[in-house]
Structure formats: C-alpha cells, structure tokens
Amino acid sequence: MFDGYDSCSEDTSSSSSSDESEEEVPPLPSNLPIIKNNGQVYTYPDGKSGMATCEMCGMVGVRDAFYSKTKRFCSVSCSRSYSSNSKKASILARLQVTGKPPTKKAKVLQKQPLVAKLAAYAQYQATVQNQSKTKTASVPVEGFSWGNYINSNSFTAAPVNCFKHAPMGTCWGDISEGVRVEVPNTDCSLSAKVFWIAGILKLAGYNALLRYEGFEGDSSLDFWCNICGPDIHPVGWCATSAKPLVPPRSIQHKYTNWKAFLVKRLTGAKTLPPDFSQKVSESMQYPFKPSMRVEVVDKTHLCRTRVAIVDSVIGGRLRLVYEESEDKTDDFWCHMYSPLIHPIGWSRSIGHRFKRSDIIKKQDGQIDASSHLFAKVKEAESSGEWFKEGMKLEAIDPLNLSAICVATIRKVLADGYLMIGIDGSEAADGSDWFCYHATSPSIFPVGFCEINMIELTPPRGYAKLPFKWFDYLRETGSIAAPVKFFNKEVPNHGFHVAMKLEAVDLMEPRLVCVATVTRIIHRLLRIHFDGWEDEYDQWVDCESPDLYPVGWCQLTGYQLQPPASQSSRDSQSSSSKQKKKSKSQQYKGHKKKRKIPVGKKPVSLSSGLMTGGVWRSFSGDEELTPQYRTLPAQTSPEACQPPRTSREFNPCLKTGNWSCKKKQNLMI
C-alpha cells in the first residue's frame, strides 16, 4: 500500500552536460521537481546509481520507487502495457514523450531525464492553465462560497443523514470529523496529477474542511471540498490505482521517512468505504425521464390538477411543462417525491378536480410515468369516525407559507384526501381550495398554534381580537376536527436551530437558496432565507423533499441563490409590502418578487399539498366547480376542545417513531 508514497523537492542544482550528447539541451527550469524516496533525496548523478528508466514510457526516476521487483517500469499501467505490446509500442511511447527517436547516445542518463522533465514541465504548465480555466468557470454565483460563509461566521450545517431524499442520505454512515481521504495534492510542481492524504476537520453537509497530513496545527493550506466529488477517494485507492502519493512541497523537509509517518498516523484511523464513489453514483440515478407524463397541481387553480410533461431532471428536481403549453414556457418546478405530482389517473381515482387537456393524442416518445415512481402515501385509518365537511382545523396557507391559518374542511375525497379552504379568504368559486392528505404534516388540530406559541392567522375581517377558538366555534356553529385524526408521528430528524441548509423558496420553486433553521416545533421547521426579512420565512416539514444539505447544488449542478445583499433588498422593498396575498379572486401567482432570477418563474406552493398514490388509467374531466355548502351546527364547541398540552397532541414526542428508508419507499 505504501509503495507509492513519494515526495518532492525543488531542483536547485544544474545538470552537467554530456560530451556524448548530439545537441545542446536548454537549461532546466529551477522549479522542476526531483524525486525522493524513503527519506533520501536523489539528484541525477553522472553515474547510474539509484536511478531507473521505464522501459515502456522512457521516464526516469528513483529506482526504489519503480514498480515490481525488477524495477523496469514506473507504474502498473506501464508494466501491463509493455507485456501486451511489442517493442515497437515501447518506442512509440518514447516518441510521444521526447518528440525525437531514441538513439544510442540518447540513452545517456543525463540526457533522458532532462528531455523527459522538460516535456513534463510543458505538460504541467498546460495542466495549470486548464485548471485555472475550470476554476473560473465553476465560481459560484456572485462569488458565494459555503466554506468562507461557514468559516467567517462559525456556522453549523445540517448533516446529510437529515435528508433521506438527497443523494447518500440513507447511507451516509460514519462519515465524520477525523476520517482520512486521498485527495489531489495542489501544493506540488510535478507535471502529473498526484495525491496526498488529508483528514476531515469539519463537515458542513456534503462539504468538508480538509487538512493535509503533516501540517498538524498549520491551517495555511486547509481547503473545502465536496466529499462526493470525483477526486475524493478512500485511503488505499492510490495504491490500487497506481497513483503516486506525494507530500505537499511546503512540508517536504519535516520528515525523512514519510512512509513511517503515514503508517503511524493512519493506524486505527477511519476512511471512506471502498465502494463510496459507486454509492454516490447510484444515489444520483433518477427514475423520472424527459417526456414522461404526470398529473400536477394547476398553478392557476389550486383546486385542480393538469397533465404536464417532464422537460428536465436536475438532482431529482423536475421541470414540468403543462401539456397545452405551445412554447414550453408554462412550467412548474418540484421534486420527484413532491406531494404535488401524481400518476396519470390519480385525480379521477380519488374524486379530485381535473382540467382536461385539449391535446387528445400523446406526442411521439411521451409515456405515462409508472405509478411506482411516485412517493407512496401513508395509509389513513378512515374506518369509523373520520374527518367531515365543515370541521375546523389549523393549516399552513399554501399561498403564504409563513402563516398558519384558521381553516375548514370543504370536501372529503377518497383515500384519505381532504380539500381545505382558508377561512375568510376563499374565492367564491372555491378555486383556491387545496388538497392535503389526512396524514399531512401541514395540517394541525385546533389549538396547535396556541400550545406551541405560534401566531395563528385569524380569518380575514374577523373583528374579535385576540382570536379565541372557543368563541369562533360557537359563533360559526362548527366543530373542531378531533386531535386523534391527525398525524402525531415525530421522526428523529436530527435538525437543530441555527443549522444551515439549502432550501427551495416555495414561493418561487425554481430557486434553491441559502437558508437557516430558526425554529423547530415537533416535526415542523421554520426556514429563514439568509439576507431576507423574517416575513419571507416558510414553515416546512422536516422530511420535505424541498430541503437539501449544504453542497447539494454544487453536487447536482443546480444554481444556488446566495444570501441577499442589502442593496437587493432595498430595491425590492416595494414588492415586500405586497407580501400578503389577495384571495378575493382566483390565484394568479405569487406576490413575492425576490432573489436572483433563473429563467421562467413557476408558481408558489407548499410542499405539504397533495400526497401521491397509485392508480388507474387516465380519462374524464371534472371541470365543474363543486357547490359551496354551508354546514349547520353539528355539536357544541365544548364537544371537541383543543388539546391542553403539547404532549396531548403528540404523545410520542420523546421516542420518535422513525426509521431510515430507502428513497424508493419514502413516506410523505
């Protein structure tokens, strides 16, 4: 394993000229490396002692560092290439390195390393230029860097295993501080790409702060990188892949025997699983493909769904284009596990309103997405006593996600689905009713906000303030939905207040933004978008597929929206005054205009809406608006009082009933 532990230093000596050389060799650049091994520094002497020439590629180096007992080849790949090729192939390989045919005099030791090193130096310069171009192209938007942001403010990020729907979310395992990895050595002047071992000092989602072994208390070369990136490997990868391990140039002088140093440092240390990169690749395979057809909420009428076509998939997020959109600009963004999308035929199977498409025949290549691709809904125990039309509850308003409002069940659908309306703000035709499943974490029993000290938004125009549920139930002749009907499960989610993450702005769901958890109520998280006022905060479930670990955008290639600057907030102050929605007519789009635009703007909707299931083939239309019904008083408000304590609402708070499931079986 340690056969490849090499190090490098600067070549400050000038090579002697050879009388046997056929031509003059240009002087060697002073910063070219000389190889050393096992604590001994080798120059290129007049004799052949300590040096060897690869019989395959012609490279010259320290004999002890060469591959195999015979020391004929510089690496495993050269040894294998030589055994499978003729002597002619070896000569061709040398031509590629030196640019000239080998001669007898060219075999003189002093000449070969000079030519080879000059070629290597040219290759090194080209590599540096390419890397510089690559880095320039991958600079985050507006220069934002998670590493700098976390370092300068001592922030903490939510761990990857908090996000079961994200890549590696269910198999993050024991990746923690102290784990050792093999990474590219950027403090080296060798032409070839070389590696060195580094230890994880701090984790922030997928990102890790690394320090090269040997630097100990020196943080001068500490760097952040994405652990799931292609250049991060478990210890031992270099040995099995015939890649050189070279200590950074800054610390070459610290130890005379790097092999012994690494043996001591790595004994008992943890590293990544050998199949880590394979698991990363597998976790980033997404079953949804372009041209698949789904049913998705209609962003102009929340009470119904429409057919949409998958246009693109980025990190599991889908850009859906409504089927009747001729120029493909009428789109909608959501995660593939979002409760807002369903298989074709879902609406008809549960009695949900659906807008029939004018397009009768599928276009070439379009197929209906299979029902097993969608997130499975939890089974609701609807036998016996159950939710009824007219019952009151509290619900997150999908048009103003910072508010939990007084709400009413307007219709009970099949399979545990409910149509909910916000009291005092409903459209006359019911077009802003929205669908929640009975097990949705976005609906709550009467009294939930009071118990947990959350501001409850009363019905618009309600005069008796402060709002009291008892008085309101009596005045409206309504009953509260019993506490036992609601989902009381609280997973051991692992989130804590002040943790950083990347979160979808559900008011503009094409945007993924830098965000912070500011409050936790059971399984409910208050998400704050860094740089923006609190009025833009959103209530989100801890298992929402719209939350991601730090580094998710970099890993998947999705654009991250950085914290807003003061100037950008000031320029949009007039828009912020319109944050409250108007519900007297149909829903016509989000009211908030903020953050950096990234193309067309999908609508604002809560991640807690409609949870998808499985089901029959598509046909039919339910375009008619359901008749609004005013329900008579069924019982006195005393018959269903709100819970007195948080424990009464959530008896399993201390022992969360939750287990990690693979994302194919995620429950919403």
Descriptors:
histone binding, alpha+beta, disordered N terminus, repeat, PcG_chromatin_remod_factors, seven-stranded mixed β-sheet, SH3 type barrels, 668 residues, disordered C terminus, Znf_FCS, Wheat Germ Agglutinin (Isolectin 2), domain 1, zinc
Give the helix level as a range of percent.
10-25%
Please state the second-level CATH architecture of the domain at 380-488: Roll
Strand content: 15-25%
Largest sheet: 7 strands, mixed
Determine and state the CATH class of the domain at 380-488: Mainly Beta
Radius of gyration equals 32 Å
Distance between the termini: 46 Å
Mean pLDDT: 76
The count of helical stretches stands at: 14
Low-confidence stretches: 1-49, 86-140, 576-668
Global shape: elongated
How many strands in all?
30
CATH topology of the domain at 380-488: SH3 type barrels
Structural class: alpha+beta
MBT repeats: 144-248, 256-357, 358-459, 467-563
Biased composition (Low complexity): 1-18, 565-576
Organism: Pantherophis guttatus
Protein name: MBT domain-containing protein 1 isoform X3
Word description of this protein:
Residues 45-80 form the FCS-type domain. It is found in: Nucleus. Residues 577-598 have a biased composition (Basic residues). GO terms for molecular function: chromatin binding; histone binding; zinc ion binding. Helix content is 17%, strand content 21%. The chain is α+β, with helices and mostly antiparallel strands. Among the domains are: 49-84, Wheat Germ Agglutinin (Isolectin 2), domain 1 (2-Layer Sandwich), CATH 3.30.60.160; 175-272, SH3 type barrels (Roll), CATH 2.30.30.140; 286-373, SH3 type barrels; 380-488, SH3 type barrels (Roll), CATH 2.30.30; 490-564, SH3 type barrels (Roll). The strands form 6 sheets. Strands 6, 25, 26, 27, 28, 29 and 30 form a 7-stranded mixed beta sheet that branches. Strands 12, 13, 14, 15, 16, 17 and 18 form a 7-stranded mixed beta sheet that branches. The longest helix has 27 residues, at 111-137. It is elongated, with a radius of gyration of 32 Å. The protein starts with 6 loop residues before the first strand and ends in a 19-residue tail after the last helix. Mean pLDDT is 76; it is low at 1-49, 86-140 and 576-668.
